[in-house]
Amino acid sequence: MPAPKKALRRSLTVTSAALTALAVLSPAALAAPDPSASPSTSPSATPPASMSTVGGPRLGKPGTQVGLAGGAPVLPKDLTARSWIVADAESGDVLAAHNAHWRLAPASTLKMLFADTLLPKWPKTTKRKVEVSDLAGIGAGSSLVGVKEEETYTVHDLWLGVFLRSGNDAVHVLSAMNGGVDRTVDDMNAHAEELQALDTTAVSPDGYDMPGQVSSAYDLTLFARSGLQKKDFREYASTVRAKFPGETEKDKKGKTSRKPFEIQNTNRLLSGDYDIDVYPGIAGVKNGNTTNAGSTFTGVAERDGRVLLVTVMHPAKDEHNEVYKETARLFDWGFEAAGKVQPVGQLVGPKSAGRGSPAPDASGEAGGTGKGSADTKPVAATTGGGAGGVGIAAGITAGVLVLLAGGVFLINRKWPLPDLVRRRSRP
């Protein structure tokens, strides 16, 4: 067994090291997006002839890109998505991609960028009494978790609403806490630029269809990879069920109480459905569905110490849970193909990694500032899936297995470490 996998088995409590320095940044990888791929709310049925080359020149080409070598399995034949990508979360290698930089409407997968941008700002225990203005401007037909005006919620409650129910109401309350929607969108776009997610233009913090709002399979994968460095992000993304505060009620004696209700994660590879099983080793991340975007999904899964990220955007096949079915087939292919294919590109690191600036600490917990900011520390550059990769795998594993404080949670029992699951799950 390779050394990184042995290290993962030995040290499941290792905090994931920052992924910022895993990519080798070549001139081609830093190329700006092609102007012909400008944002559009109504993209053509075919991708642009030339797209961004961030991550490597092959990723800027339309169509499927894969480097099959001896013994490598062929890609699944029944993939209908406009765009998809399969990448190794540890090394950053892109194993295969299809129109990876095609700018498309992202739907609620954009909430990964929202969460990665705002999660470090407040401790979980921070409270907010919801004002009428907090819920203004939520788009018609939005997914909601059930946030009510004049009720008080913790930041922990609101993030559960964002991750599990994709609640645009929870997003708007957190945006209000951050100074408003406009400021939050500005923060998101600045963070996307720092991550070198140059295909992305955020217009709404919740991913609701808006003119000019676009992202790409490549960028959504960068958001997931960055977010998974944060402990809170991993825990929320891997939670299947939780309790959410209900409305305040009075009994006959005038006593008030709030009866919580259960919410379930809408990620069907994590929670399952009548026509799809929970995917073994799944640990999140985020799904979405809007008129312009169709169905979108980014997932992360681990098998035998290897962690893969898969993003799928807008399957053409109109079948229930199709985005999850195509993602599962790409995960299966990726785990079988890893080590047998030539990478076609790379997930780049943030700009600050190239400047040697401190990278965010992987814990995602409140630091010493008292404002909920993550601690920072410098991370040495690496060029492969060494200690940093092992840390990410272990960090994701820990995130799936930890019970979040303040609620009752069902953690995915199909994670391939049953002994540790049983230890952590005991009352």
Report the principal-axis shape: globular
Indicate the percent of residues in helices.
25-40%
Tally the helices: what do you get?
12
Number of extended strands: 16
- Uncertain segments of ≥5 residues (pLDDT<50)? 1-42, 356-391, 398-427
Instruction: Note the gap between the termini.
Output: 34 Å
Q: Biggest sheet: strands, sense, closure?
A: 8 strands, antiparallel
Oligomer: single chain
SS content category: alpha+beta
Order of helices and strands: HEEEHEEHHHHHEEEEHEEEHEEHEEHH
Overall average pLDDT: 79
How much is the radius of gyration in Å?
20 Å
Strand content: 15-25%
Textual characterization of the structure:
This protein is 27% helix and 18% strand. With 427 residues, it is of the alpha+beta class. The strands form five sheets. Strands 1, 2, 3, 10, 11, 12, 13 and 14 form an eight-stranded antiparallel beta sheet that branches. The chain has a two-stranded antiparallel sheet with strand order 4-5. Helix 2 runs parallel beside helix 6 (217-227). The longest helix is centred in the last third of the chain and has 16 residues, at 322-337.
